Amino acid sequence: MDTLTAEQLTQAIESYKNTVDYLEIRVEQSESTSLSFKGKQLDGVDKSFALSGGIRACHRGGWSFVTFNGLAELNKQIEIAIAQAKLIGQETTQLAEIETIKDYVPAKIKQDPRNISLEAKRQLLEKYNQLLLDYDPRIQTTRVSLSDRFATNYFVNSTGSCIIQERLDINGRFGAIARNEAGVVRQGFETIHSRTDYNALVGIEERVLSAAKRAVRQLEATSVKGGKYTVVLDPYLAGVFIHEAFGHLSEADFVYENPSMQELLTLGKPLGIEQLNVIDDATLDNLPGSIKYDDEGVPGQRKYLIKNGVLQQRLHSLETAGKMQETPTGNARAIRASYPPIVRMTNTAIESGDTSFEEMIGDIEEGVYAVRMLGGQTNGEMFTFAAAEGYMIRNGKIAEPVSDVTLSGNVFQTLKDIEAIGDDTLYTSGGCGKGGQMPLPVSVGGPHLRIKNVVVGGR
Predict the structure, then answer these.
(1) I want to staple 211 with a disulfide (CB 3.0 to 4.6 A). Which of 14, 188, 418, 419 is the partner?
(2) Which residues pair with 455 in a beta bridge?
């Protein structure tokens, strides 16, 4: 697919742009490889080339979405999308106005994974897999994978925008599962991501081994005694907490459809201590959620969701911004061109504060240090997270390891109960799920956080 395609899409949309209120075409051409081991077994090797696309039409407030995997009958697909939108639309289309953009955004590439043979990738992954298997006799099995995907995304719409964006994603995922004589099973994970360089996966033996070390360490842990504690979250868990428990509440489609949340999430409302700043930043370099333009052609931005403890902004698509009479934020995203854009986060984080880790734990007589996340769920403003590792804090020091650490509570109360924000910060890559679209590349970040009165459940 060359620049002719962009012209082809522009010409196709030109003929129909006045027949509905809004029309867009997105096309994605991609090539990807993935390899995985499960224990000693090479579990999968895939190499694929794909072309997919989607057409969205909006008429009198009614949306339709039509997918395709070839350009031969593009006009026919556009006509189907238009007919469907006209069938549904009964109200008024309310979309925020945005500027017309014509741009080409190349990927910045150092070492291109497309130039590395499948055999070389397999050897590298096998080496890391063997490292994990050999670390300790209690390591029962492993789950490891390497993947890379290069995509070119074409976007044209009826307001005249034409944007071509290249995107490269390189991922390494390393998991180790350990079991002791008593039958206790623990797991440890490590992920590596780069948007620019295959060499980010080379020479990472210590990072890979950390997955096995965490799994084995937790075999020695005893179940935490349930109760209310002052809890310190490590940066991984702080990032996941703010993404899952608060970030999703900031997505305007959720707020717009939920009157009780509109009341809870009134802009200008104080939500936490003055030092609390929460951002969603698409402009950061080399992170999974970084984008120059979202999937509606809106520039990616740095936004304060909470600034100095006060609710400042929410995340929007063109439709939610139009309906709520707010400004588009560049947060309409889709996992592929064959899915419609919906309101999603990019790189979501708590900004660092001014408290050192030593100061944070120094006056805690008995508390819990929760490290990384094993799993969790949110339901509106309520959340439950399971930490991958836990340690007791006793008399201002990190003490014995504990297991079965689950943290639960109400996000608004928990934000108010934050007592200290660390002077460190760390971003980690993730895959977010919403509306049947999973995994969307995002990043979560934060410093250490100290929170009082957290309900901690043990076994």
Answers:
(1) 188
(2) 228, 408
